[in-house]
Amino acid sequence: MMNKSLNLPQPIDAYFTADKGDGEAVAQCFTDNAVVKDEGNTYNGLAAIKQWKIDSSKKYTYTCVPFACEVKDGITMVTSRVEGNFPGSPVDLRYFFTLEGNKISSLEVIL
């Protein structure tokens, strides 16, 4: 469940909502040439981002609850509590978003 008092920019709010669904819904939150960095890997473009989300959803079952948001130098950092069936759960992950219009152009997920 998302923290209702947290006022996330629309594309980021859409990302966390889509994250509960499927890879296609997540990919639709990104620009055509977007880049995602997660767990030491880099995913370029919508097809790779869609596959990243499909693979991570198959690998683990998790919930993600954003609880802090800060904008600095054009980058929006969202901190989320992630709980699931993965090693080290629960963890607070930091998501660094760069937006382009109403889409996400880059995302880096860091522990």
From TrEMBL:
Source species, domain of life: Bacteria
Name under which the protein is recorded: SnoaL-like domain-containing protein
Species, as recorded: Sulfurospirillum halorespirans DSM 13726
SUPFAM superfamilies referenced in this protein's UniProt entry, alphabetically: NTF2-like (SSF54427)
